[in-house]
Amino acid sequence: MTATPFYLPITALSPVYDTTGEEKYSALLGKVNCLEQELKAAHSTEQQLARLCEQVSQENEQLNEFIASIAHEMNNPLQVASSFISYLLQERAGDISGTQHDYLTAATAGVKQAQVLLQDLLCDSQLGRLQLDVDLKPVDLRKVVRETFNQFSLLGQTSHTTLVGCNLEGPECMVLGAENRLQQILVNFLTNAFKFSPAGSQVIVELRQVEDNYRVEIIDQGPGIRLENQALIFERRFQVKDTAGIYRTGFGLGLSITRELVELQGGSSGVESEIGQGSRFWFSLPGIPGQP
């Protein structure tokens, strides 16, 4: 008896060529084509992003150069004004009265504020290009704080705010820093305090030693800062709204640059504040070993 051959259909062996195999194949092929298109689109988008990043970088560099140029140009007339005020205070042009001396001192503080604003703009452009540097030398921090305080005493009166100094007289507090940068830090903190201080309030400037460091505190009686904003206020161009929800005038550069300058001199800075209780801004620098 001859056996009858048995043939198994190929569709029974292959999952592709079953009754719905063609449909599955077409569906998979469609997905593959879609993925290829998405990959091509992603690659094109990546190239576009790279070109945009390069363009933004170039334009940002041009902007920083422009800001630096403007800051330098505007500083020249301010320097001239500052020099002539200094000559008058030294009575090189003749005797001046006590009232005239006070007015000229207040004018000096105003010019200093404008110069520091330009310095902030210049520092901001230099930070963008990683070019900011400081020339560190032994400096008497107490002397710098006292001189800046004296310049701003009358300026506080014009804003109906009393400036109070604590521990500004006494022995030297020697730190390794740059005197002009220390002045810039103090002016930024004081300007910020005056900006948010209500009429009839006080701004306190205190210098004290904390272990091996010298700490300067600027204490105001303003509206205070919310906890979630206290870390953000040192970010570049961040501004806090007042109690009415309105931004105060300014570029939002002062505090961010202040922190950078403090760190470049080996120090640290921060703020302590509660809503309705005012703010305490501070910076601390290590004292020079062996110095009083």
* Beta-strand share of residues: 15-25%
Level-2 CATH architecture of the largest domain:
2-Layer Sandwich
Largest sheet: 5 strands, mixed
Number of strands: 7
H/I helix tally: 6
Oligomeric state of the chains present here: single chain
Q: What is the radius of gyration?
A: 32 Å
Task: Provide keyphrases for this structure.
single chain, Helix Hairpins, 7 strands, alpha+beta, five-stranded mixed β-sheet, 292 residues
What does this structure look like?
With about 290 residues, this protein is an alpha+beta fold. The chain has two domains: about 35-135, Helix Hairpins, CATH 1.10.287; about 135-290, Heat Shock Protein 90, CATH 3.30.565.10. The protein is about 50% helix and about 15% strand. It is built from six helices and seven strands. It has helices spanning about 10-15, 20-90, 100-130, 140-160, 180-195, 255-265; strands at about 135-140, 160-165, 175, 200-210, 215-220, 270-275, 280-285. The N and C termini lie far apart (about 120 Å).
